[in-house]
Amino acid sequence: MGKRSTLVYFIVVLFTINLGESFAQDSLPYRDSTSFFKFLEQQEEIPALVYRFKLELKEGSEALLADSTFQFSQLDNSTWISKTYPNFSSWYAAGAEYLASDPPLLQPEFLVYEEVSDYQATLDYVSNLLRNQDIFIPESSLEVGDELVMLANLVPYEPMVKYRFHFFSDYKLVIVVSLIVFFLIMAIGMILFMVVIKTRHSKIEALKEKYEAQIIGPLSEVLFEKSEEEINLMTDADIYAIFPEKDFKKKLFKEVLIDKIISLNKKMKGDFKDKLKSLYKKFKLDTISYNNLKSKRWDVVTRGLVEINEMDVVEALPVVRDLTNASNFYIRSQSIATLLNLSEKVDLSTIKKQSYPLSRWQQMNYLRIIKYLQIQKSLNIDTLFYGENQTIRLFGYKLVRMLGRVDLIGQLAEIAPNVDDVEKIEILKTYKIIGIHTEATFVNQCLRSENPELVVAAAKASGVIGDQVSAHILIELLNDQPSFQLKMLFLDNLMKLDQTMYQEYISKSNDLELNQIHAHLIDPLLQHV
Amino acid sequence: MKKILIIEDDLLISSLVEFRLKKDGYITHLVQDGNEGTKAIESFDPDLIITDVMMPFKSGIEIIHYARKNKPDTPIIVLSSLGEEEKIVLEAFNLGVADFIPKPFNPNELAIRVKRIIR
């Protein structure tokens, strides 16, 4: 039986056996028909509940009809019913003798709201009144006399706790008990879980410390005493002479060893780096890194990628390449960084093929690597201009200006008129930063755009790479009475572009705002504010 | 024999440096935080101090201050990452450290510098 089945079984048993019975016994003062009648006897009157006798005519019962105490009235040919009694005691006192005769001459009848009610319905009715506190349990004990036992015998026996599942009929109690049990189990479970985790964690930490101590000394010795060639010639026996075979075969030991080697690799330089890489492969730690790439956990895959990147495990590059379009952000970023770092022949087509958008963080990360790589490798940055999603194309335009690739301006100029406004803005920034005066026509087209953001970007670019036409367009834009911010931007760039036209325009203008902006722009203290 | 105090919180690096210096016949003492470092300056009375900059409790700069005040003639080599702020490096030199070795570094190169300073 599984753990889950055991738990379910435990809960069901808890509900159905113990709680079920105890609830029924504790909440109602009677548990069978005898104690119920005793309870009724102790009540003065119960609202809407009355009692009477029923007489079936048979031999020996004719004399009862004449008894005026009962005031019988005929119900049908053979059945007579007595008057009703509101009080159980008086009712029972009147008919006890006949109820107890064998066979009984009278039958008891209960009426709830003047309707004949059987024993079970009467019991339920009284129980409800009790639960709603319309009647109360008398203080006197429920001692049951013989007479009531005899009366109870007239009622067919039906146990109150008819089924063990009777407990479930009170849904409020079930909910409360379920919640308590749930929280209890959860609390115990969590405590146990924490204890287990803590113990396990402490054990692992202790083992890691032990392994660290085992690793540091021998590793230092190998690094200083052996050359790279000697490391490459080491046999398994040589390795087990350095690290105990029993420990060396353990996964945790190898994980600690990987950590230490990678940490050293980051902080060492020169032949030590090469020795560390040789050791990494000699100890077959590259296989662990390689296998990490196939894990279903993203953190394990990313760790594997970092290890492969740090230790130059080029054999893993085909798998790394497959991860460049992974759905997980970290895997994607790290795999591209690894590929860029390790590939002999690498270009940016891997990034181009990405269907996921590039975040700013990824762009920063790639830029750092590309800046370093572009000196040694041909990266084909222009391939990004034709990327599958816009963030990749935008990254391509940014790279042109950040790396100062004037040789790619021709290609950029070809595609610029056909891209959307967001890309045009990025291209304008690139033109402006690099100072591409040949693209003034494109700037002028953008200045006439309906998109205010594109106009702003074009105005900023016009100050650096605009021409006479740009100056005229800026004046037209100023004449359209734009907002204060835009006026300032247009004037500023007009001044940078053509001082003569700027002075002429200002001198002719009666606009107070324009003159204030002019004063601001020519003030040596304010012109950069 | 000359005594060298190594104050470095990275046990792996410090052990490697210690291993290399012991090979050259120096007596070494290893501590892993700034507090231990200042205590060891008094108790171990080193001929040379090699210290990291970023450490628990007391930084390398505080160690240098302490050493300059209490052992003004003891040379100090600062071993720290290149990412360290220029201001800190300049401060270390202003305080009169003998050398600054950026990480990543080559332990053999460190050994040569130690030999030159301690001679």
UniProtKB/TrEMBL annotation, chain B:
Gene3D superfamilies: 3.40.50.2300. GO terms for cellular component: cytosol; protein-DNA complex. One of its GO terms (biological process) is regulation of DNA-templated transcription. The keyword Phosphoprotein applies. Residues 3-118 form the Response regulatory domain. The keyword Membrane does not apply. GO terms for molecular function: phosphorelay response regulator activity; transcription cis-regulatory region binding. This is Response regulator receiver domain-containing protein.
